[in-house]
Amino acid sequence: MSNKVYEKILKSSRDGFLKVKGYKNEYGEYVDFDIIDYNKSLLDVLRKGTKKSSLEKDNIKNVITEMFNTNNENIKIKDLLSTIETDGFKKVTFGQKSYGINLTVEGYSLEEYFIFICKLNFEQEIFRFSEQLDKATGIYFWIKDIKGNYITVNKKWLDETGFQDKSSIEGLNSYDVWPKKQCDKFRANEKEVIRDNTIKIFEEKFPFLSGERSVDTTIWPLLDEDNHPIGTMGIAIEGKSRTKFYENLNKNEKTFKEITKYSDAVFFIRDDKKIIYMSPAYETIFEESCDYYEDDVYRFNDFFKSEKQKQGILENYDFESLNEGRAKAKLKNGKEKWIQYKFLPIHDESGKTIKRIGILTDVTKDVNLEEEKEKLRLDFFANISHELRTPVNLILSSIQVLKLKLDNLNKEDYDYFSTYMNIMEHNTFRLVKLINNLIDSTKIDSDSIQIHPINEDIINFIEEICSSVIHFIKSKNMNLVFDTDKEEEIISFDPNFIERIMLNILSNAVKFNKEKGTIFVNVSVKEKDVVVEVKDEGPGIPKEKIPTIFDRFEQVRTKMKSEQEGSGIGLYIVKSLVQIHGGTVKVESGDNKGCSVIFTLPRKTLKNQENNSIRYKESKINMMEVEFSDIYV
């Protein structure tokens, strides 16, 4: 190879070129080398091939020396120079890269110098993939490097662009092939894929020799082992089938419009920019013209915006997915209506969302009827609960009076009457608990329950409740362990509500705990909340039941005896009372793994709040007897 040919290749090639001079020792063995010349592409090739991001011309020699210490054939630089000097040529392959990219170095002898050609190559599997696509109708395939230079294409691509073979396209840039206008768009799409490092789909037009074609293009990044983009690979499919789809869609839209014209519900069709069709029912439901929707597809959403719902019904809107729900709309004339809405995507044959259908139905009458029924139900529960409370309280008071007279009886009569009096009292407490739960759940549903918070030490408060129920828990041959990461934390809370919460959770822990099991109560103070966890060692709750455990009347069926089952209202009230405090509650459990009920309370205090904990302490004993009545006999 002459120096003139070498100079020409060095200046024009996109491959990396390197010219070196070797030095021998006294025994005629190569021991060192110097770099005489190289081209600009060498730095880029070596950076990708060796993953040396800080590669500069001053350290090329060190990088090449290190590179030869890790080549696949275990050939050192001195051995390579000797082999090239003898044979005139040697090719060496370096470390394998992701997506089939590797680095090869071809060495040649040039009189007293050596030249090396450094190339980044794609593995043969990708080329075989390209060959398989040669037979596919309407599919164009190509691979480019990070700069947008073509590495390979399939036969279909060649036929439509006028190139004779794949070697004639290799190394050319997009701007060497396409008109600048189209090429700018192609390159912008490739840069977007490389920037976001993800697969993307585009609608493009290819200016082929036989005429401009609409295609759906899928481009994905080629990555190295560190997930850094090193190129792109693309497939384009002719748009004939997509065009046919749109034609069918337009025909179906005409039928759709005729049908929805006579519907009481609002139907509309929209794309990503404007509403294409709005049915006449819109003006009936929203009592205004819909002419202005041509320029604002989200205008109807203004009816649904409020303090609680600042984004209207589009807060979690996703153009690609199904969206549905029910919301209150406030019309411009001041009327309020309940609207059932559903937005459905329309996909083309490739699965891409191209349009959406919206359905808006006036359900105000149905909602009003439901609210009326709910009010009647709440009134019924409230009345029946209060009607039951009076006779139950009288029965309980009578039992207490009769108990005072038991001391006047002899031992045999005392034991006899005392047994039955305790049974009566115990079951009366169970009725009180049921009535209280019904009344409280009714107040919660009607938003009429009132909170009376005070500033108090929540940790000491929880610990006192745990101490007060120890005798109940020990009577069931169980233990209770209380733990905290802080001795004191003053926050604002309603002591009666927190007592209800703790006693309900503790009674459930006893009810469903294993025999001779332990109940763990842990209080921890976080940055914004106080976290209370009550954990038992029972059989746990099946995972599929956890999402509904706080629903009213939800009852988890276990192997426990039927008398241990409650009304199913308790945890519903627990959740509601915690939320009234501004906290959260959740359950963590699994089959045979015990159950943890965890609730949080905000670390907030009230100013100028009088402490009325004395009122709470007066009713403390009765509350424990009521809450534990369904497990303690």
Features:
alpha+beta; five-stranded antiparallel sheet; 37% helix; elongated
Instruction: Kindly state the number of beta strands.
Output: 22
Structural class: alpha+beta
Shape: elongated
Q: Beta-sheet strand percentage?
A: 25-35%
Overall mean confidence score, pLDDT: 77
Number of helices: 17
- What proportion of the residues is helical, as a percent range? 25-40%
The largest β sheet comes out as: 5 strands, antiparallel
| Rg computed from alpha carbons, rounded to a whole number of angstroms | 40 Å
- Uncertain segments are 96-100, 556-565, 612-619
Widest β-sheet, arrangement of strands: 2-1-5-4-3
Q: N- to C-terminal separation?
A: 105 Å
Task: Please sum up the structure shown.
The protein is α+β, with helices and mostly antiparallel strands. The protein has helices spanning 3-12, 41-50, 60-68, 77-87, 124-133, 155-161, 180-196, 240-260, 281-286, 364-405, 411-445, 458-468, 470-474, 495-511, 570-580, 613-618, 620-627; strands at 16-24, 30-38, 89-93, 101-110, 113-122, 139-145, 150-153, 200-208, 211-223, 229-238, 266-270, 275-278, 323-330, 336-347, 353-362, 454-457, 479-484, 490-493, 518-525, 529-536, 585-589, 595-602.
